[in-house]
From TrEMBL:
PANTHER family: EUKARYOTIC INITIATION FACTOR 4B-RELATED (PTHR23236:SF12), EUKARYOTIC TRANSLATION INITIATION FACTOR 4B/4H (PTHR23236). Residues 22-74 form the RRM domain. SMART domains: RRM. This is RRM domain-containing protein. PROSITE patterns: RRM (PS50102). One of its GO terms (cellular component) is nucleus. Keywords: RNA-binding.
């Protein structure tokens, strides 16, 4: 898995839920897309904490999905029109 941040521990269930509440899952990501590409595309939404692009272990090829964790939940409201 390619990530722009060293792995960090989430100590409690509440912390995990909080991180998920300000993260998005993206499908149909171009196989050639990089972390830099995704950060550039979503930077106008707000401060990005982490971008992760899962890869096929055997080949290193992107799985065509990505996860983006924002610093604040409000970043997702701007981009996706959530209430």
């Amino acid at each position: 898995m390619e990530s722009d941040r060293s792995s960090r521990r989430i100590n409690t269930w509440a912390e995990e839920l909080e991180v998920h509440s300000r993260s998005i899952y993206i499908t149909n990501v171009n196989y050639g897309a990089t972390i830099h590409d995704l950060k550039k595309h979503f930077q106008h939404c707000g401060s990005i904490v982490r971008v992760t692009i899962p890869r096929i272990q055997r080949t290193g090829r992107s799985r065509g999905i990505a996860y983006i964790e924002f610093e604040k939940k409000s970043a997702m409201n701007f981009r996706f029109g959530a209430a």
